[in-house]
Structure formats: structure tokens, C-alpha cells
Amino acid sequence: MRVKYVLSEVLVGLWRNVTMTVAMIITMAVSLTMLGASGLIYTKVADMKQLYFDNIQVSIFLEKEASEQQVADIRTKLEGDPLVREVNYVDKDEAYKRFQEMFRDSPDLLSVVKAEQLPQSFRVNLVNPEEYKAISEQYSTVEGVDQVVDQSRVLDKIFDLFTAGQNIALVAAIAMAVAALLLVANTIQVAAYSKRREVAVMKLVGASNWFIQAPFVLEAVVAGLIGSVVGLFALIGLKKFLFDGALSALQGLFAPVSWGEVFVTFPVMAGVGALISAVTAWVTLRFYLRV
Amino acid sequence: MALRLHRVDSRPVIQLEQVTKTYPKASRPSLDNVSVSIEKGEFVFFIGPSGSGKSTIIKLLLHEVSPNKGRVIVNSKDVTSMRSWKRPHFRRSIGCVFQDFRLLPNRTAYENVAFALEVIGKTKAVARRVVPEVLELVGLGGKEHRYPHELSGGEQQRVAVARAFVNRPLILLADEPTGNLDPDTSIEIMRLLDRINRTGTTVVMVTHDSNIVNQMRRRVVEIESGRIVRDQARGVYG
Predict the structure, then answer these.
(1) From CA B36, how far away is CA A176, in angstroms rounded?
(2) CB spacing of A208 vs B163 below 8 angstroms
(3) Which CATH code fits A64-143?
(4) Is the pTM of the predicted complex or chain greater than 0.90?
(5) Where in chain A is the domain with CATH 3.30.70.3040?
(6) What is the ipTM, given to two decimal places?
(7) Which residues of chain B make contact with A6, given a CB cutoff of 8 A?
């Protein structure tokens, strides 16, 4: 009976102030979508770092006229280096093959470049890709080395971009969360005001505090949960139309976002949405109802 | 020791022990070192001019405000030290009636009384059994389904009394219950409170309606500027 009473009060409450309820749901949804997106980007960046750094190489390009002795010396030095995990030598022919592969769509370029014009190089996998600097310092001055190029520096720029995107989403999530919070506080105040006579009577006859507060808190929680459901649909839309749609050309670059990962964010979004609403409502009631 | 034994024997249901209450920002205390003892089943008037502190007594008994000094004991519970989460349960043993009735305008007489039961966890079945009974008792039989705006002031106050009494409280507090009523209606309400008092309920009434006090000839405690200036067993108004 009491459960039924509380639930009907919640529905009446949400209806009574339907414009505020909708505003609350929308801000909550945007905030939670941003939060979910930020979380997804965060896990993706971590995944991709793992993926890329495992395969990342430092290329040591040799001078075209490096002698065989110089090449052999460098190889010995690299193989004995504790920072190095794996060494591959790419001679001029191999380099030409890769070049052909890379520029197969530009026959003009291919026709003018000869194998002899390409530098031979060592492709080095590091034990720890972050230690690129040490390798670069050691080898760029060695006889016969032209330059040391690290792929991870390029990747770092890409990752910086992702991290910036993630931070923007997070900031937007927090800003919207603050807006949602203020809306919840305001809605609860309006609701408490419109039910002030009932609340006064309830306090007078000794209704328990939870019984007085529950409809208000639940009203906010229900709005928060609806907001998180809307947010889930927004994330589904983002994956379907943006990630799998417009950005599908870049799929080789990004680690794919699975449906599982999208749905796993829902409990987090729902939990955060419900918790923020409940705490805000409860704190507002403390000040406003003094129960 | 002897004093304490005496107290236990007489079982006061309400006891104020040297209570001082000063509201924040007030220049002088609303109640200044007030001690009063009210026994079970008594009918007591608190009288005095506006601002004398008599309404503060009601607020103290409801645990709406706490005293700065002294103790308030209701129904052998020390209200002064009561934790606020225990207050709801404590209030179920006290009924309360006000000058402005405080009825819910969008509920009928029946629903107003039933509301008080349902929000403290009583079932609808209990309400169906008890509410018509108490409405009959206050003389509103047949008017259960009227809304407050369809009832006269006296009838509205009867609904309020029914709501206060439906839970069979030990104590009924009445804060100027006749303040908004004409003299004839006031007397009817007083008859009703008297009838409730005869069921064993302690009635504490704050008023400055001299007519009523003089007619009832009950215990009168007069307060002036926060102090008790008179406590008379079968008193009249000043």
C-alpha cells in the first residue's frame, strides 16, 4: 500500500511539473552521454596505445654510401643493446619493395625511383617504446647512420588528439552535470513547495522522514534513470552513425568499439545519473523541508 | 527522594522543568525558567497576551524547537535529548489542532482524516473502519465526502480534531483552536474537546478567548513575558 502510494506520488510529481522534468531528463542525458563517450575514448586510447606500442619501431636509416663494415658494426651494437628487443635489417631491395607497396597507386613516382636511391635501414623494436630518446642519442652519431626516426612521436600526436577529445567530453559532462544538478535542486524545491501542506500534515502526525522524502528523491532518481536511458540511445546512435558510418574509413586507425563496450557503460551512466539525482534531491530536502 | 517518589506516583504526562527558551535574535526569552507539570487526563488552558510565550510551549511539546535550558518530558520521554529521527514516532502519541485548521483542500473530510493514518503506515482497511467512527464522534456523520471549502469553519475544525484524535493520542494540543470561529461555534468545539478529554486524553489548549476559559472552569496557567504568573486549578480568565 505504502509502496503504491509512494509510486503514485512520484508519477504525479513528474507530471505536475512536466517541463522541468523534461529539462532535467535532457540535461541529465547529455551529461551522461558525454560521460559515457569520455569513458569509451579513455578505454580506446589505452587499448590503442597497447596495440601500437607493441608494434612500434624505431627506424635507423643509414647513409646510402655506408660500408658493409659499418652496417655490421651497427648490427652488433644493436643486438647487444639491452634496450632493444628485436632488430630487422632492411636492405635497399627490401626498402624498394616496401616503397613499391606503399606507392603502388603512383606509377609515375615508382618509375623515377631506383632501388639504389633508397637508404637501407634497421627496424628496431624496443623493450620499452618510451625509451626512444636514449636510442636516438646513442645511434644518430654513429658512423654510417643518417637519421633515427621514431614512429611513436607521430603516434603521440594522434593520442594527444584523442586525449584532448576525451577531456573535452569530460568537461562537457561535468558542466552538464552541474546544470542537471541545479535543475534537480530547483525541481525538488518546486515539488516541495507544491506539496507543502501535505508535508506539514505528514510531519505533524508523525510520518517517518523516509516516507516524507521518498517521493521527492525517487522523482529525481526516476528522471535521472530516464536520462541515462536516453543517453544510452545517444551512444548507440553515435556508434552506429558516426563511428560505424562516417568514420568507418578510419577503422584501421581506431581500435573498434564493440556493442558490448557501449552497453557496459550503461550501468555506469545509470548509476551516476541516479546517484547524482538522489544526493541532490536529498540535500535539497534537508535545507528545504527540514525533516 | 520523597519528591521523586511523589512524581512517579502522580505520573505527570507532561513536565517542563525550569525551561528557558530564547529564539535566535530575540532580545528576551520567550519562556523564562518555566516549570509546569500536567497529569494524565487533565484539561489545561495556557492563557496570556500575544507574544507571552504560550505558543512556544506547544512547539516545545511537539519537539519543533528545543529549549536553551531545562528539560521537557512528555509521556516519560525526555524530549530535550531526543534524536531528531525519533521525533516522527514520538509525534504519533500527540494530536494537534491549530487556529487555521491545516486541512488539505483537495481532499474530502474522510480523506483528510484517512491521510493522517495512511502516512504513518496504517492500511486502507484500518482507515475504512476507524475514520467513519471518529467523524461520527466529532459530529460530522454524513459529511464525510465534503471538501473543506464545502464545510463551515466549525465543521472544518471538527475535521481537524478528528484527524488529531483518530490515532487515539495520549495528548491533544490545541493552539488557539477557536481563534477563527464565532462564539457559538467556539463553544461547540470546546464541548467536543471536553468530550475527548473525558475519554482520558490529556488536553492542552493555548488561547486568549476569555469567554471560553471562564465557561469551562478548568485549570488555567497564565503566562506573561515568558513567566508563569498564575496556575489555578479551576480558574477564570484574568
Answers:
(1) 57
(2) no
(3) 3.30.70.3040
(4) no
(5) 64-143
(6) 0.87
(7) none
